[in-house]
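I have been asked to look over a protein record a colleague put together. The record follows directly below this note.
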Amino acid sequence: MPKLTVNNEAIEYRMDPATPLLWALRDASNLTGTKYGCGTGSCGACIVDIDGKAVKSCQITLDAVEGTFVTTIEGLSPDRTHPVQLALIAANVPQCGYCIPGIVMAASVLIRRDRNPSDEAIAGAITNLCRCGIYPRLVEAIQRAASAMRGDEPLATGARPGIDPREAARIVPALDPGSQRPR
């Protein structure tokens, strides 16, 4: 059974070693932030960090990653305050959001390797496909995240993206049929 470390937790997957890492993460570990996009390695929605490299998890098997350290979007920043995430939100980059986890993972690997990436370095590292067309804002956001990681400029850390689960739904009194008043 393949053994690896996922988000700093040792895991032994009781799955066929030929299973793509993507499906082990999504189905066995319930880490659904890593997305299935194309299954051919073309879109980048499934990118995770494996030992400091951006890897398309749909294209690598459990057997091939045995003994490695894997970081998913959930493990990168459980509270969603990684500088790349904050910079993308500040620049209004996310649209539908489907490609964003893969982009965040690829960008975080790039910035860890190159603290001052050029436009060309970003274009070379971020090969993800986005049907919403976020590219014009993406390069600037990644450069801003790199600047924040170098300590050159802070990023706003006020409101986290997303909704507090306690605020997502509230119980309200039932309405009296035919009126707009609670019973």
